[in-house]
Write a structure and sequence with these properties.
The structure holds three protein chains of three kinds. By secondary structure, chain A is an alpha/beta fold. Chain A has a single domain (about 5-150, about 220-300), classed as 3-Layer(aba) Sandwich (Rossmann fold). In chain A, about 40% of the residues lie in helices and about 20% in strands. In chain A, the strands form two sheets. A six-stranded mixed beta sheet of chain A has the order 6-7-8-3-9-10, sandwiched between helices. In chain A, strands 2-1-4-5 form a four-stranded antiparallel beta sheet, covered by helices on one side. In chain A, helix 5 (about 155-165) runs parallel beside helix 8 (about 200-215) and helix 6 packs across helix 8. The radius of gyration of chain A is 19 Å and the shape is globular. By secondary structure, chain B is mainly α. Chain B has one domain: MetI-like (MetI-like fold, Orthogonal Bundle), CATH 1.10.3720. Chain B has ten helices and no strands. Chain C is mainly α. Classes of the chains: A alpha/beta, B mainly alpha, C mainly alpha. Chains B and C meet through helix 1, helix 2, helix 3, helix 4 and helix 5 of B and helix 2, helix 4, helix 5, helix 6 and helix 7 of C.
């Protein structure tokens, strides 16, 4: 890694740790750490260490209507920083809809009305006067099907930073390299960054989209079923990636795959018919779910 | 590993980083594109209004009688549109008479009967017909077609005027420049539209229909006549109306061959004028009272084309509804 | 073929088997089939023949007149030999240029409005108006532009400026709008919304993402629409008859009456002068060739972007 990014990185890390100390004394108490014995389940091995910590985003009493359809009913959830939270539930239960509320992508749908608060670091993202462009640069998103722009790999990654006015070629080169390394794609494409992004395989394209999202240096990463269009090997690579990213980012992932949720996430939220039925640490949720509906879903009785 | 931007960058959601933040520029974007789109509404409304107001003096003077009176005299300042309305309707009708059977036959051939290797080049040729500008058709009509049909006209004028029923159609001296020439050239011009649309519609009939017909033992023609044409019927009617709308508005080619006649005559050999050809011929030097009268002509033409186009759209909308209804059943 | 009336009881025992098809019926059916087949081939021939004849005459007669003079000289007065159509070709290019300045912005931005924000009542009326405008005969549009851009200007300048290339360009531009608007809308709608969402999720604004990403992807189709609109409009005569009028001389001042290829062809073709008639064929050849090249370029633009 080039020296410049090394020093940049360590400086940034020091800053974050310092800020965290300040932040943790101000925020609300985090959810209590999980108490499940580590030997019992094949779960996220270092889940315990991460469930504590400051709240990054908090949703309070969120209701969403598509025209007359009441798609999200009084959802309350909070997301601790530097954790992975999985949103699970059967098709059409509202988990993707809720995810898209977190970066206000639902604004694009005309008939959509959102009530309630969603707070990012203490600021309500639905308040008047909020700059949505800023929000989306802090809360990035990766979509279900990889959607690289019909441009070169380099242009794809540089797109976000350029939006923020970064024009310096050298700086952009650094960002491109750093982002591609973070999404474990650098080694595969470093020799041909001017190749069209559409020429990559599905798994590579998705990792490109992750790198593209990371290039704007977001704090939260939303992932909407990122592996559903990919083969098992690419899926595993991306799950590995998520585990690495967790040390820096707050990740919220919607997934259809319960094993994936159990494997990767620290916390899991179960949605059903627009309601958030249960939120708990993953270890707890998959071994001792509190709600009968959760148990039914997890054991495969429906969905 | 990329880290999130440190807090020192002050990434509050409320801070305006640029003079024009996203909300403002997006609003400008919305209203600008809306404005440009709305311009077209303004344009069409203005067009109708302007035609009416320019024609107003003539409308006041002649009223609806304008549409039925036949005298057009700039010297006496008496104007009547009937010969030109007649000319427009008859020439378009003639054109349809010729173009619909030929166009349909061509469409059927291209869609069903032609060998595969012929289909694309032939279709391309037919589409090329549509790309030739009207004035080139007029030039060709004037310098090639008319001399070519003059012998035919001569024969008809000598012998056919005596025939029962159709006799009056061939009355008068053969001048070449005539309603017949107008109808012919118009037919050539609307042919590609009728053919192209009909061909698409026939091709769109589900292969199942065709297979079902053959499975029951029909000949190719019986399969076409029955299920295929029935399924394509509404689309073909749409193609015909489309051709009609085109014929009604056609100006240059017909101006150059129709001969500038000012009477509504039954004879195909007589010269005539359509609403558009009259406008083309007289507008540039019009003055005084003549101008509002010509505007009145333009208004009538405008009205006719709007009605026909509206009717076509209504039919298409109706057909779409029927298709939806039948698939629901 | 008679079928027995079924009775309430055993129908199948009552129904007689269908008689074998008579030979004469089969011959008739086959004959009808052959006849229709022949008629269809005849129709196709009848459809193609005029086109071939037109192209043949335009080429043969047109090429005869094409020499260097044709492109570098203006027309000679009636009766004199020689001359060219330099003024007409230039005039057409100038007015198509003016027309594009009007037709392109309105057409493209309007098309973007319809595809990005197009789910409301206003969009419905806009589409309807575009269809109406498309169906209006071109001579009516010429008459309209005369009433709003020639007559008032003439009155205001005391006759100094009346027929002009501006007015001609305006009329052609109005005709370009519906084609470009509709093509742009359809092409932009084809761009998958996932691309737009991807850009917006990175913190892009609507207008920037539309122009950079969506239009970028739709570029080929939009160019096709523009080229087709230009091809169509450069062959139009009627709207220029009372707006740009025509000119026997070379003119580069848009405030003055200007010659155009179609109008000059019309004038030459309807004159009694043989020399002018011959030049008309030449002009027709150049015009048809130009339109052909534009149409092929338009098709190529779509394909190459894929």
């Amino acid at each position: 890694m080039p020296a410049s990014t090394q020093t940049e990185k360590s400086l940034a890390q020091e800053k974050i740790m310092a800020d965290q100390k300040i932040a943790s004394t101000e925020k609300m108490p985090a959810t209590p750490p999980s108490s499940a014995p580590a030997s019992q389940v094949m779960l996220n091995a270092d889940a315990d260490a991460n469930v504590g910590g400051a709240t990054k985003m908090k949703a309070t009493n969120v209701n969403l209507h598509y025209g007359t359809k009441h798609a999200l009913k009084a959802v309350n959830a909070d997301f601790t920083e530097r954790t992975i939270t999985a949103l699970i539930g059967p098709s059409g239960c509202g988990k993707s809809t809720f995810l898209r509320c977190l970066n206000r992508m639902n604004d694009l749908i005309e008939s959509c009305k959102v009530e309630g608060d969603i707070v990012l670091d203490g600021e309500n993202i639905y308040a008047r006067g909020v700059d949505v462009v800023q929000l989306r640069q802090r809360v990035g998103m990766v979509f279900q099907k990889p959607n690289p722009f019909p441009m070169t790999i380099w242009d794809n990654i540089a797109y976000g930073p350029r939006l923020r006015g970064i024009k310096n070629k050298a700086m952009l080169n650094d960002i491109v390299e750093e982002s591609l390394r973070s999404s474990a794609l650098w080694e595969e494409v470093k020799d041909d960054l001017k190749k069209s992004a559409l020429g990559l395989s599905g798994g590579q394209q998705q990792r490109l989209c992750i790198a593209r999202a990371l290039a704007t240096k977001p704090e939260v990463l939303l992932m909407d079923e990122p592996c559903s269009a990919l083969d098992p090997i690419s899926t595993l690579k991306i799950e590995e990636l998520m585990r690495e990213l967790r040390s820096q980012y707050t990740i919220i992932i919607v997934t259809h795959n319960m094993q994936q949720a159990a494997r990767c996430s620290d916390k899991t939220a179960f949605f059903l018919l627009g309601e958030l039925v249960e939120v708990d640490s993953s270890a707890q949720m998959f071994t001792h779910p509190k709600d009968k509906r959760t148990e039914d879903y997890i054991t495969g009785r429906f969905g | 590993m990329v880290s999130p931007a440190p807090n020192s960058e002050n990434r509050s959601l409320f801070k305006r980083t640029k003079l024009f933040d996203a909300r403002t520029t997006d609003a400008i974007f919305y209203w600008t594109t809306l404005g440009f789109a709305g311009l077209i509404l303004v344009l069409v409304a203005w067009l109708g209004f302007q035609l009416y107001s320019s024609a107003a003096p003539s409308i006041a003077k002649f009223g609806p009688k304008f549409l039925t009176s036949s005298k057009w005299d700039p010297v006496e300042e008496i104007y009547g549109a009937w010969p030109y309305i007649y000319g427009t309707l008859v020439s378009s009708f003639l054109a349809l008479l010729l173009a619909v059977p030929i166009g349909l036959g061509t469409a059927i051939y291209l869609a069903e009967l032609a060998p595969k290797w012929m289909r694309t080049p032939l279709s391309f040729l037919v589409e090329l017909l549509a790309a030739v500008p009207s004035v080139v058709y007029g030039l060709w009509g004037r310098l090639v077609l008319i001399p070519a049909i003059l012998p035919l006209q001569g024969w008809l004028s000598e012998h056919a005027y005596k025939w029962p029923i159709v006799g009056p159609l061939f009355d008068g001296a053969p001048m070449g420049f005539s309603m017949m020439a107008g109808g012919l050239i118009l037919a050539i011009m609307i042919l590609p539209f009728i053919t192209a649309v009909s061909r698409e519609v026939i091709k769109a009939v589900p292969p199942m229909q065709r297979e079902a017909a053959f499975g029951l033992g029909s000949t190719h023609w019986e399969a076409i006549r029955g299920p295929i044409l029935r399924a394509a019927r509404s689309g073909i009617i749409g193609a015909i109306i489309l051709g009609l709308a085109r014929a009604l508005g056609e100006t240059m080619a017909i101006t150059m061959v129709i001969g500038n006649g000012n009477e509504a005559s039954a004879s195909l050999l007589a010269p005539a004028n359509t609403l558009s050809s009259k406008l083309a011929l007289e507008f540039a030097e019009a003055s005084g009272d003549q101008l509002p009268a010509l505007m009145y002509l333009a208004l009538v033409l405008f009205g006719i084309t709007i009605v026909v186009n509206g009717f076509a759209r209504l039919m298409i909308w109706n057909m779409a509804r029927q298709v939806k209804g039948s698939t629901r059943g | 073929m008679a079928v027995a009336q079924p009775s309430p009881s055993t129908v199948s025992s009552r129904v007689k088997p269908l008689p074998p098809i008579s030979k004469s019926l089969m011959t008739r059916r086959k004959g009808a089939n052959q006849l229709m087949w022949a008629l269809c081939i005849l129709s196709t021939a009848l459809a193609i023949i005029p086109l071939l004849l037109v192209l043949y005459y335009v080429t043969i007669q047109g090429v005869k007149v094409l020499n260097l003079d044709f492109f570098t000289q203006v027309q000679k007065p009636m009766g004199e030999a020689g001359g060219g159509m330099k003024h007409a070709i230039f005039g057409t290019m100038m007015m198509v240029g003016i027309a594009s300045c009007i037709g392109l912005p309105i057409g493209i931005l309007g098309g973007i409005f319809l595809s990005e924000f197009g789910n409301n009542r206003l969009a419905f009326y806009v589409r309807f108006a575009a269809d109406v405008l498309n169906g209006i005969p071109s001579i009516v549009i010429g008459v309209f532009v005369y009433a709003v851009a020639v007559l008032p200007v003439s009155k205001a300048t005391n006759g100094n400026v009346s027929f002009s290339a501006w007015a001609g360009g305006l009329a052609l531009g109005i005709m370009m709008i519906p084609t470009i608007m509709r093509t742009t809308e359809e092409i932009v709608k084809l761009v998958p919304s996932s691309l737009r969402e991807g850009a917006l999720a990175l913190g892009d604004t609507r207008w920037h993402s539309t122009f950079k990403i969506v239009l970028g992807a739709a570029k080929g189709g939009v160019i096709t629409g523009i080229l087709l609109a230009i091809a169509r409009v450069s062959g139009e005569t009627a709207p220029l008859l009372f707006t740009a009028l025509g000119n026997n001389f070379f003119n580069s001042d848009p405030k003055q009456p200007t010659a155009s290829l179609p109008v000059t062809i019309y004038t030459f073709a309807t004159s009694a002068d043989d020399g002018w008639n011959a030049l008309a064929w030449g002009g027709a050849f150049v015009l048809v060739a130009m339109i052909l090249v534009l149409s092929i370029a338009a098709r190529y633009a779509t394909q190459s972007k894929q």
